[in-house]
Amino acid sequence: MRFYLSILFVCFFALINTATAQDSVAPSENEQQQALEQLKEPMYKPLLERYILDELKAVRQDQQQLREDVTKQVTHAQLDTADRALIYTTDTINNVFFIITATASILVLVGWNSLRDVKNKVEDIVNTRVSVITDEYEDRLKVLEEKLRVRSEEILSNQERISVTNEVHSLWMRANLESDFANKIEIFDEILKRKPEDVEAIAYKADALLELNETAKAIELCNQAIDIDSDYGYAYWQRACAYALTYKHADALADIKMALDYSPNLRNELLHESAFASLHDNDSFNTIVAGS
C-alpha cells in the first residue's frame, strides 16, 4: 500500500513540475528529456530510502510487539503455575486437617476422648508388654539358674570325688607299704569310710582278717562284697580261702571255680596260696589245677 502511495506521489509531483515548465519558456524536446533524466535520480532515491526506513520501522515494531506478547505469555504461564501450586498446597493442607479431624472424631467415638485416655491406654499396653517380656525372661532365668545349680552341684560332686579318690589312692599306697595286718585293717576301714561300697577294699580287708585267723569276719566281708558285685572274682577267692581254712572243702572248691570263672588270672596262684594247703590231696582241687 505504501508503495502505491509513493508512486502516486511521484506522479503527482511530476505533473506539477510539467505544468510549471509549460508555463515558463517551452524548451526543446532534447532539453526536456535531459531535464527529466536529471530529475529522476534525485527524486527516486529519497523515496526508496524512505520506503526502506519505513519497512525497518515496521519490522522493529513487529519485533517489539512480539516481545511484549511473549513476555505476557510467559508471565501468564508463571502465574498459572503459581496458582496451581497454591491450590495444591491449600488442598493438601485441607486434606491433612480433614484427616486429623476425622482421626480425632474416630478416637472420640471409640472412647479415647482425651489425651489422658490415650496416655493411659498407651501405658497399659506398654505395661502389659513389659510384664509379658519380664515373665518370659524370669522363666528363662529360672531355667538357667536351675541348670547352673545342677552344674555347680555336679562340679562340687566331681571335686569331692576327686578329693576322695586322691585320699583313697594315698590310703592304698599306705596299705601296700604297711606290713602289720592290724594297721592294714585300719587303713582299709578309712578307705571304706570314704567309699563304703569299694568291693576291692572289702576283699583285701577280708584277706587281712584271714591273716589274723578271723575267718568268720572274713567270710562275712566276702559275702558283703559278693552282694555288692557278684562278678568280682577276688571276693570268691577270699571266701574260698576262709572255707579251706575251716575245712569246708566243698564250699571252698565251689568258690574257687567261681573265682576262676570271673578272674582266670588267679589260676596261677592256686598252688601258691597257703590257705589251700589242706586241698592239695583233694582230687577235685588237683583236677582244677591240672586244668590250668
Automatic annotation (TrEMBL):
How far does the signal peptide extend, from start to end residue? 1-21
Domain of life assignment: Bacteria
Q: Which residue ranges does UniProt annotate as crossing the membrane?
A: none
Alphabetized Pfam families for the sequence: TPR_19 (PF14559)
What keywords is this UniProt entry annotated with? Signal
Please identify the protein, giving its name as recorded.
Uncharacterized protein
Its source organism is Pseudoalteromonas espejiana
